[in-house]
Design goal:
The complex is a heterodimer of chains A (530) and B (291). By secondary structure, chain A is an all-alpha fold. Chain A has helices at residues 8-14, 22-28, 32-60, 71-106, 114-134, 161-188, 201-232, 246-263, 266-280, 287-300, 316-344, 353-376, 378-384, 388-418, 424-450, 465-494. Helix content of chain A is 67%, strand content 0%. Chain B has helices at residues 16-36, 44-72, 78-117, 124-130, 157-180, 184-216, 223-255, 265-290. In chain B, helix 5 (157-180) runs antiparallel to helix 6 and helix 5 runs antiparallel to helix 8. The radius of gyration of chain B is 23 Å and the shape is globular. The two termini of chain B are 44 Å apart. The chains are: A mainly alpha (530), B mainly alpha (291).
């Protein structure tokens, strides 16, 4: 390589801890740690905004009758709450973790395509500004549910739907570019000796997640495109009068949507597979079976989409096919849960905050898995479909699953990111407050659903009043508990007990071999992994 | 993986990504507003969209210019080259999935939605009660609600276009061989031929659309036949346009003396993209026109 000419760029890269200052550091950055922090910060902001919308929903549902918001506004809240939590909170949080951790874990100097990495992030605030701004437009924002089923999103949708469509398009571009970066980083940037079967499971799960993202985000783009042309250009993909079919919408949407739900849980599996061994002081039980289980879950995720559509009148053969495929997923998932428990078995356990969240994840995610199994049984689903039972199910897997794992990850790696230990007492308070309130919030929803309360309604029959009140109280408590987390993170970023390179006795991996906080540029020369 | 690379070039700061993000913001808002303003006097959406597109084009020029400069300075290793290649391959895979969704919609409509509307499977009453006159045939020239249209045949323009596009893939391959053998004349001439063939394809496709709209009563809103026909061929046409522009830029760079037998990622990427567009057309010709 030509060393005689030194460009300003090269200059910057070779001074190891030269950090640019001010706002422009964050706007122009190509550093995977900076971009990781941006993703995580953005995700938490979205978590609070989406959470505030959930508070509106729970306030309205505190009592039967309409008291706080109009039904149409209520629908906008359920819709945008879902969109923000899925695309704005959970996915960017995982991408932030991937940015921070994957290069450190595999011994790479940065992500493979650092400038594209910056682009992937900065598209997100743009997309969500559009989405949020559409709420204030005449006729209101999206009100058709985060699944935007036709004809709700075509014939009956508000004027602002075009903006929703293009916002989804650009957030899709962001996800695809981000996922390409992750795949290329993992395939091409591993340090010498870091063979595939030596990679930490977080890296493995993200590799598979990124593949899913690249495969299905374009399908989402196609779906919203057809919604756009149906609404504005006179096509009839989803209208029977022109030869189309509203059920076609659901097929295409869920072909994206089902892999999407695994996109939101596979990285969690990676996180839990890092934390459980650390605090059990044992090697992970069944590493290779974990890898194969993750891959099987990902492959099966392409064959189960119509289990969201059992009540659309599909032929019995199709219902059976999708029912059995769905149930099959519980096998690799069971392997995972078994392996985590087996890792803890006879381990020398301690219960720091990351471990608490991880154990809560295993228990509560399994509850969500079981209710998923119930929903997978076609004849039973006829009863549960579109009730609060479904709401309970997916909040167990997404809140006590995905979000709890993200919290666990944040506590686990905060010392590495900030160079300080977080406040253990406050962290424990956050954990217990979250654990108790989240179960008050979501557990009674099972009973509401089984008793027949439909989802996405601003008002309900009197017999559901008591449980709804309880659920709302749990909801407010869970929302407030998350502010403790904000305090913990700010305190930790500003100061606290200095963290050693490896703050957790049982931790393994390349990221723990570098000082805390991790230097701005790490692994500029790849380490040799034995 | 993992040859002993001493240095993986990590650019420090760049303002192109944020420019690109702002460009996409303009595009999304502009496109959204333009669609909402269809049929009205207002044009602000169109303007915002245009500004966004201009910003993105500027970004691409600036960004790629930086990359070319860095590459010329010898900052890139073989590993970097692999990053680019793998990145482009995955991008093309995402494009494949985009088309797959539209092909999936086409197959669903043809094999399930239309027969069901005609009373197949357990939908006998649908056929009898809703639209008793409806005939479940493909191409669907009469929609359930009674709109009629004409189907596009595969002979004539589509067949000619198939030959043109297939030929262009071959000429592009010859150009690539020329590049690898460092035969610049072969490279330049075959690349130029490919660009011309791309342009001819687009013109003929436009001609076909004019024909469809003026004489055949086949429009975007002619029921699901028109919907799938125009969206599939339209998105393909858009990709041919992008591919032709990419190859045109490559031609321009070739004439300026860029690329060497062992360093020509941009050429390679454009060529992959062109072959991909070609394969999509084969799928289109088969499933949209012939069958």
């Amino acid at each position: 390589m030509n060393t005689a000419t030194t460009t300003p760029e090269q200059h910057g890269a070779e001074h190891h801890d030269h950090k640019p200052k001010g706002l422009m550091r964050w706007v122009l950055t190509t550093n995977h740690k900076d971009i990781g922090s941006l993703y995580l910060g953005f995700s938490f902001l979205m978590f609070l905004i989406g959470g505030a919308m959930a508070m509106v929903i729970r306030a309205e549902l505190y009592q039967p009758g309409l008291q706080i918001v109009e039904p149409n506004f209520f629908n906008q809240m359920t819709t945008v709450h879902g969109l923000i939590m899925v695309f704005g909170a959970v996915m960017p949080a995982f991408t932030g973790l991937a940015n921070w951790l994957i290069p450190m874990m595999i011994g790479a100097p940065d992500m493979a395509l650092p400038r594209m990495n910056n682009w992937s992030f900065w598209i997100l605030p743009m997309a969500f500004s559009i989405l949020l701004a559409s709420l204030f437009m005449e006729g209101g924002g999206p009100n058709f549910g985060w699944t935007f089923y036709a004809p709700l999103s075509t014939t009956y949708s508000p004027d602002s739907t075009a903006l929703f469509v293009f916002a989804v398009h650009i957030m899709g571009i962001s996800s695809i570019l981000g996922a390409i970066n992750v795949v290329v980083t993992i395939v091409n940037m591993r340090a010498p000796g870091m063979t595939y079967m030596k990679m930490p499971l977080f890296v493995w799960t993200w590799l598979i997640t990124a593949f899913l993202l690249i495969a299905v985000m374009p399908v989402l783009a196609a779906t919203v495109t057809m919604v756009l042309t149906d609404k504005y250009f006179g096509t009839s993909f989803f209208a029977a009068a022109g030869g189309g079919d509203p059920v076609l919408f659901q097929h295409i949407f869920w072909f994206f949507g089902h892999p999407e739900v695994y996109i939101m849980i596979l990285p969690s599996f990676g996180i839990i597979s890092a934390i459980i061994p650390t605090f059990s002081r044992k090697k992970l039980f069944g590493y290779s079976s974990m890898v194969y289980a993750t891959a099987s879950i990902a492959l099966l995720s392409f064959l189960v989409w119509a289990h969201h559509m059992f009540t659309t009148g599909m032929p019995v053969a199709a219902e059976l096919f999708f029912m059995y495929c769905t149930m099959l997923i519980s096998v690799p998932t069971g392997v995972k849960v078994f392996n985590w428990v087996a890792t803890m078995w006879r381990g020398s356990l301690t219960f720091e905050v990351p471990m608490l969240f991880a154990i809560a994840f295993i228990v509560l995610f399994t509850i969500g898995g079981f209710s998923g199994l119930m929903l997978a049984i076609t004849p039973v689903d006829f009863q549960y479909h579109d009730t609060y039972f479904v709401v309970a199910h997916f909040h167990y897997v997404l809140v006590t699953g995905a979000i709890f794992s993200i919290m666990a990850a944040a506590y686990y790696w905060l010392p590495k990111w900030t160079g300080h230990m977080y406040h253990e007492g406050l962290g424990k308070l956050h954990f217990w407050a979250s654990l108790i309130s989240v179960n008050i919030l979501f557990f009674p929803m099972h009973f509401l659903g089984l008793a027949g309360m439909p989802r996405r309604v601003p008002d309900y029959a009197l017999q559901f009043a008591d449980f709804n009140q309880l659920v709302s109280i749990g909801g407010f408590a869970f929302g407030l508990s998350q502010l403790i987390f904000l305090v913990v993170v700010i305190k930790c970023a500003r100061g606290g007990k200095p963290a050693p390179a490896k703050p957790w006795e049982g931790a393994e991996g390349l990221e723990w071999e570098m000082p805390s906080p991790a230097p701005y540029h790490s692994h500029t020369t790849p380490p040799i992994v034995k | 993986m993992a040859e002993q690379t001493t240095h993986y070039y990590v650019p420090s700061q760049s303002h192109w990504p944020i420019v690109g993000a702002i460009g996409l913001l303009f595009i999304a808002i502009g496109a959204g507003m333009a669609v909402q303003q269809l049929g009205s006097e207002a044009q602000s959406g169109g303007w915002l969209l245009t500004i966004g597109v201009v910003i993105i084009i500027a970004m691409m020029f600036g960004w790629f210019n930086d990359v070319i400069k860095e590459s010329d300075q010898g900052l890139y290793s073989a590993q970097m080259d692999r990053s680019f290649r793998q990145g482009m391959s995955w991008f093309i895979f995402s494009e494949v999935m985009f088309f797959a969704a539209f092909f999936g919609a086409l197959f669903y409509i043809r094999t399930i939605a239309i027969p069901w509307l005609g009373g197949a499977s357990n939908n006998q009453m649908t056929g009898q009660v809703l639209w008793p006159e409806f005939e479940a045939v493909w191409p669907l020239v009469t929609t359930p609600s009674g709109d009629t249209t004409t189907a596009m045949g595969w002979q004539g323009l589509p067949l000619i276009n198939t030959v043109i596009l297939l030929t262009s893939s071959v000429t592009l391959h010859f150009a690539h061989i020329g590049l690898e053998k460092n035969n610049r004349k072969q490279l330049t001439s075959f690349l130029a031929i490919t660009v011309v063939l791309g342009v001819i394809f687009m013109l003929l496709q436009a001609q076909e659309y004019v024909e469809a709209y003026r004489h055949m009563g086949l429009t975007l809103s002619s029921g699901v036949y028109g919907n799938t026909f125009f969206l599939l061929t339209g998105f393909h046409g858009l990709h041919v346009t992008i591919g032709t522009l990419m190859l045109f830029v490559m031609l321009w760079r070739v004439i300026k003396g860029h690329f060497s037998p062992d360093r020509h990622f941009a050429f390679q990427a454009s060529s992959w993209y062109w072959h991909f567009v070609d394969v999509v057309w084969l799928g289109l010709f088969f499933f949209v026109y012939i069958l």
